[in-house]
Design goal:
single chain; alpha+beta; six-stranded antiparallel β-sheet; 6 helices; globular
Length: 228
């Protein structure tokens, strides 16, 4: 009995430490306090999110060298530059490209980008809502925030990517996610315990994957001159 109580106490302590100390940091990995709190285009699509994250990374290249990697994101396109083994756990068939694909560069408003095969025949498919090369890409879900059902994939979502020029030729790449779903204790627990750590791993690796690709000398120089 005492050993069981001790184990339960240890689990409770670890859970509390994660919720209080770790979980908030995963949501703002790499982002400054100002970046995490600022309003960004796309926020209006999920005005009261049940989950939001703002993550950021420095890239030693101009926004024009980062932009080609953003517009070719998606399943059946250039992938997510992330952990393909994790993506396969949810059935996603991502093949992350190490090159800029010319035929994927003509992204336009109202185009669709598929991220995962969940939630019906279309899976998690986002629509291009705003696109301002080479600085801003806003993707939104087709669902409304007031009728979301998390377990059926009908989650209201917005994803904003900002490639912001900083000092000395550095680009500040910001990734913001906002999500909402029908409130329930089960959905909230599922999200906090499983989805959020999974999402952090993919999003953080995506940012580093874009950085590593955009910082390659040949790619960086081509992007800076507007070449593909």
């Amino acid at each position: 009995m005492l050993s069981m109580i001790a184990r339960l106490a240890a689990v409770g302590t670890a859970g509390a430490a994660y919720v209080i100390g770790v979980r908030p940091q995963l949501r703002v990995w790499g982002a400054s306090e100002a970046e995490a709190s600022e309003s960004l285009p796309g926020d209006e699509h999920v005005p009261a999110p049940r989950f939001s994250s703002t993550r950021a990374i420095d890239i030693a290249a101009a926004p024009s060298a980062v932009w080609p990697w953003l517009v070719q994101l998606g399943e059946g396109r250039a992938g997510l530059y992330s952990y393909e083994a994790l993506e396969r756990l949810i059935g996603a068939d991502m093949q992350s490209s190490d090159t800029i694909v010319p035929e994927l560069q003509d992204l336009a408003v109202d185009d669709t980008i598929r991220l995962a095969p969940i939630g019906g025949p279309d899976g998690l498919t986002l629509v291009v809502d705003q696109l301002e090369a080479p600085e801003l890409l806003v993707l939104v879900g087709r669902r409304q925030a007031d009728d979301g059902d998390y377990f059926n994939g009908a989650v209201a979502v917005s994803w904003t990517l900002v490639a912001r020029a900083a000092e000395s030729g550095v680009t500040r790449l910001i990734s913001r996610w906002r999500m909402s779903w029908a409130p329930s204790a089960a959905a909230d627990l599922f999200n906090g315990a499983l989805v959020e750590p999974f999402h952090f791993a993919l999003d953080e690796k995506l940012l580093r994957g874009i950085r590593d690709r955009a910082e390659r000398p040949g790619v960086r120089d081509a992007g800076a001159t507007g070449q593909r």
